[in-house]
Prior knowledge:
By secondary structure, this protein is mainly α. Helix content is 70%, strand content 2%. The protein contains 21 helices and two strands. The protein has helices at 7-35, 66-94, 96-117, 123-136, 139-150, 156-161, 165-184, 187-207, 220-229, 243-247, 250-279, 285-291, 293-315, 322-328, 330-342, 351-365, 372-379, 384-395, 398-409, 416-440, 456-461, and strands at 41-44, 49-52. Strands 1-2 form a two-stranded antiparallel sheet. A hairpin with a 4-residue loop joins strand 1 (41-44) and strand 2 (49-52).
Amino acid sequence: MKKCPYxxxxxxxxxxxxxxxxxxxxxxxxxxxxxxQKNETVHNETSNTTxxxxxxxxxxxxxxxxxxxxxxxxxxxxxQTITSLPGGPIAEYFGAWxxxxxxxxxxxxxxxxxxxxxxxxxxxLFVCRFFIGLISGVQYPALQCLIGRWAPPNEKGKFSACLMxxxxxxxxxxxxxxxxxxxxxxxxxxxxxxxxxxxFSIFWFLLIADYPSKSxxxxxxxxxxxxxxxxxxxxQGKVIPPFLKIFTSVPFIVLVIGQFGSLWGLNLIVTxxxxxxxxxxxxxxxxxxxxxALPSLARLIMGFIFGGIADFLLKRxxxxxxxxxxxxxxxxxxxxxxxxxFCYTFISASxxxxxxxxxxxxxxxxxxxxxxxVNNQDLAPNFAGTLYGIMxxxxxxxxxxxxxxxxxxxxxxxxxxxxxxIFSIGGSVYISxxxxxxxxxxxxxQPWNEKKFRDSxxxxxxxxx
Length: 465
């Protein structure tokens, strides 16, 4: 019986790391709906009186207005944007393993603090969510470092598909929150994410290493196979990334723009769907938690399908030019999702159609695993973490831009026509950023990928064992 390659276990842990990262974002959006006191009223025509609707008792409720709600939602993304930029160099210098391990532990502690300080004063909750985002910002760049070091080139599509664990985290968080809140109150979701973090930290500590050659569990044969497959494009050692060349690289600039567009659509779902489903589609908490998970589930499934197709095309040399694969799949990752969002302008306020279009949109966007999520590995695998950190810095911005835009558009009233405006903005961002990548993107290894060490002693001290 053929032995299972150890890198599969690394891929599984990458999957769970991204799942945890997004669970921290999504569970809170659902919980916030149950935490906020909205004074809803109905008019009784028989008695010509106005009655206040009694909200379900899911725990204490707080009087946050739309502006404060938008700030609290965006707090995580403010923090993540700040640390995404240095997250890559931190992981490349200190190690991806320690970056992810420490962030998971610190986030569990900060979530407990958040639960203790929540009150009618929104500022303490904002601060805690900001620090959770700050701590989480280092994770994705670190995971990109691991993919660059552990994944053979012909397997990077499937490895990058493991970053779709974020979608599984979204599905798990929305479904679990929708189940727990009506039964145990919104506080139960905080305890749930803390427990999930602690369990993950134990397995990460035991199973993961920065390089195959440093793993306790990876066989010597597999280490040699992975190292040989990279053809010298991956080097061990601590150097300062060539930031000037990175920031002036046209292929990388359009990759950043493409990532911004892709994450605009994803953050639109993460930050806005609970509110859209509660206020426009009139779903109850349990139904909202289940249906809000469907678009993310579609993205997860399609991500693995698109990743497998791309790896098949390249491995069998059906398509020999990686750039054709990267740009061709942008039709699915950006253009079709954008068109789908524009369709909201032409449909009536149908709950079935609304959810279906969201499922279609994020299903198509699953192709991002072979476009934006892997292109940094094409350009410079030695600095994949740094590149992704920069990408994620700009890609995180929709997380606080979208709530601010939504608060302005929905300031007077939350109705179908105003939400179609929000979706149309998302469609425009998707299509324009995708077209730029198709015109100016590249899949060629960049000359600045080579690590330039200060002296020969540093090279020898960091050579693979």
